[in-house]
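Q: what does this look like with guanosine-5'-monophosphate bound?
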Amino acid sequence: MELLKRRILECGRCFDGGILKVDSFINHQMDPDLMSNIGKEFAERYKDAGVNKIVTIEASGIAPAIMAGAIMHLPVVFVKKKQPKTMENMLTTTVHSFTKDRDYTVCISGDYLTADDRILIIDDFLAYGNAAFGILDLANKAGATVVGFGFIIEKSFQNGGTKLRDLGYRVESLAEIASLDNCTIVLK
Ligand code: 5GP
């Protein structure tokens, strides 16, 4: 997605440890026009895939997921990082956070993720795939079918994309970063 790639090169910033900061337009301050185009792109790529629900994880996955859901007219459910006392039929799994370097128990209600669902999983970044594998585990526990994944940015030099594709999953990433070495953003 050219618009997104240009914006990453113009406004993205590198941090040590292979972290790309895009908080001026994606995950702190957000650009709704860009996010709307991101939603359209996911909707276009998955329009014939028979998806009936979009699943994401809070917080930064919610904006692209809701944009895609609005265009596809599909419900969006987000995995929560804190377990609400009132959640019924709770499914849980553990996810390691790449940016915060800690483990979270995350949850989703089995009322909103069921064996009848064919889901598209959307998130802002794909790095090592920990968040993606956490959502996959929840989908497996619910008996849901995973149709594919959509990421705004995939860091191809970390191995989440390889692991998911090797397992046969469809992975659509709107921008792929080949390297952040020497604090230079190199797109694939
Ligand atoms: P993974 O679980 O694939 O290792 O990492 C993906 C999650 O970590 C995403 O949900 C995202 O929030 C966060 N993340 C991973 N890499 C980056 C990065 O380079 N920059 C930012 N801002 N977040 C990242």
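The chain is about 30% helix and 35% strand. The pocket of guanosine-5'-monophosphate is lined by residues 19-22, 27, 60, 98-99, 123-132, 160 (CB under 6 Å).
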